[in-house]
Design brief:
Layout: H1 4-17, H2 30-39, H3 45-58, H4 62-67, H5 70-76, H6 83-100, H7 109-112, H8 120-130, H9 140-149, H10 158-168, H11 174-188, H12 206-214
Helix pairs in contact: 1-11, 2-3, 2-8, 5-6, 9-11
The chain binds a DNA duplex (10 and 10 nucleotides) through residues 23-25, 36-38, 40-48, 78-86, 89, 116-122, 125, 137-142, 158, 182, 185-186, 190-193.
Length: 219
DNA sequence: CTCCCGATAT
DNA sequence: ATATCAGGAG
């Protein structure tokens, strides 16, 4: 487990690396953000951003998604992958918005997770990015980076990772730190080829030191 | 736990 | 060819 001092070091360094880290999914309101995050499951946000301009131009309101035949919606998001379940979830989500929430995305996380296709991670993103609530959404990047650095254990669930991060990061820094973890994971500590050689966090990184040792490099 | 799934990087 | 991508539902 990392000490408090190590966490401060990590937050400082990734802050220097990615001072302007923020949500990269194109959106102009909470509704669009929710759709974009739902679409982003197991898919790069870069690809989501290729689809959403046309999508958001065609579908403005929940009613627009409800009225279109599902085959047509599937076709509009086909390139994203997992398109059949995502199209179904979007339709169910919009139906619920109209029936239970006056057509608006709820701000409360406990309400957000009741929406089809919206789990804990998506709810955290919407609450944080759209409504400014403190939250740490643990996606594949945050999970991988936290485990490589040694902030949590390899066997920890995403919920356990989230709890650990919330405990070790001051609440007022949750949202910024969360985005910096994402950027660090996406552009530097990449899944397939982490840049340990040029990593400012190497001296506090469990996995990085292990990889270096394996290559016979003294850290 | 498995399934959903196309696009892209390695 | 295979791994991975801002996961969630059943």
């Amino acid at each position: 487990m990392q000490s408090k001092k190590n966490m401060e070091f990590i937050l400082t360094k990734i802050g220097e690396m990615f001072p302007d880290a923020e949500c990269e999914l194109n959106h102009s309101n909470p509704f669009e953000l929710t759709i974009a995050v739902l679409l982003s499951a197991q898919c790069t946000d870069a690809l989501v951003n290729k689809v959403t301009p046309d999508l958001f131009s065609k579908y403005k309101t929940p009613e627009d998604y409800i009225q279109v035949p599902i085959e047509e919606l599937e076709n509009d998001i086909r390139r994203i992958g997992l398109f059949r379940s995502k199209a179904k979830h979007i339709k169910q989500l919009c139906q619920s918005l109209v029936e239970n929430y006056g057509g608006e995305i709820p701000k409360d996380k406990s309400e957000l997770v009741k929406l089809a296709g919206v789990g804990r991670k998506t709810a955290n993103v919407v609450a944080s990015v759209a409504f400014g609530e403190p939250a740490i959404a643990v996606d594949t990047h945050v999970e991988r980076v936290s485990k490589r650095l040694g902030i949590c254990r390899w066997k920890d669930s995403v919920l356990e990772v989230e709890k650990t991060l919330m405990k070790k990061i001051p609440e007022e820094e949750w949202s910024v730190s969360h985005h910096r973890f994402i950027f660090f994971g996406r552009y530097h500590c990449k899944a397939q080829s982490p840049k340990c050689d040029e990593c400012p966090l190497l001296e506090v990184c469990r996995e990085g030191k292990k990889r270096m040792k394996k290559r016979g490099v003294f850290v």
